[in-house]
């Protein structure tokens, strides 16, 4: 992972402060039943290949050394440890719904889309992660009103469970329907979005940490030509590197994109 190099006065400032400047952005989790009243500053979106499994308690991360992908998102070269675990099960699968295919899905990276909004209650930027279908629905609405986004507020809402989960972005046609605080924030918030809000959202996991994580969830890494000792330098692999980032215990499977 590329580190920021500080020089001159910036380096002296970091020395005096005792720490380098680091991004502290966080996702806003949109759970089923949640809704946000938002200002939409155009289409501001990033896309990443994200690993994670609710069933195995593997929290979302991106690879420090990402693999090469086919146009459909399947790993084709420079495979990560998670890619190798996915391939191990997928090679034994005869059907996309069989047991081996379902097991493979726990370790596959899928493309996720994060879109930026302004929360009119807090007056702060929020970055919300979506699946491809969810993002398509949101972007379709944004495009529909893109010439008048500075005139309207929107309701961002998630409903349903599991495969029936849907996300909607609905126009609020009259600003008088907003609370005083929401109207005030709508007027003072900018019509553009700072790209730096997307920095540092995902946990970046090294190959060594991936090996540790595979061991933690019970996968024998020797099956994919890796040594268990390769991950021991950073601990036993049982710790949750996301502790304190988000309370995943309060999030149900249907609430998560993965």
Oligomer: single chain
What helical percentage do the residues reach?
Answer: 10-25%
Number of strands: 10
- What letter string, H or E per element, gives the SSE order? HEEEEEHHEEHEEHEH
Number of helical regions = 6
Main structural class: alpha+beta
What is the strand content? 15-25%
Rounded to the nearest angstrom, the distance between the terminal CA atoms is 24 Å
Shape: elongated
Q: What's the alpha carbon Rg, rounded to whole Å?
A: 21 Å
Report the average pLDDT across residues.
84
Segments where pLDDT lies below 50 for 5+ residues? 1-8, 18-22, 231-258
Tally of domains: 1
Q: Biggest sheet, in brief?
A: 8 strands, mixed
Protein model, in words:
- With 258 residues, the protein is α+β, with helices and mostly antiparallel strands.
- It has one domain.
- Helices cover 23% and strands 23% of the residues.
- The protein is built from six helices and ten strands, in the order αβββββααββαββαβα.
- It has helices at residues 8-17, 81-90, 99-105, 132-144, 180-188, 207-216; strands spanning 35-39, 45-53, 58-63, 68-69, 75-77, 110-119, 124-130, 153-159, 166-172, 203-205.
- The strands form two sheets. Strands 1, 2, 3, 6, 7, 8, 9 and 10 form an eight-stranded mixed sheet that branches. It has a two-stranded antiparallel sheet with strand order 4-5.
- Helix 2 (81-90) packs antiparallel against helix 3.
- The model is unreliable at 1-8, 18-22 and 231-258 (pLDDT under 50).
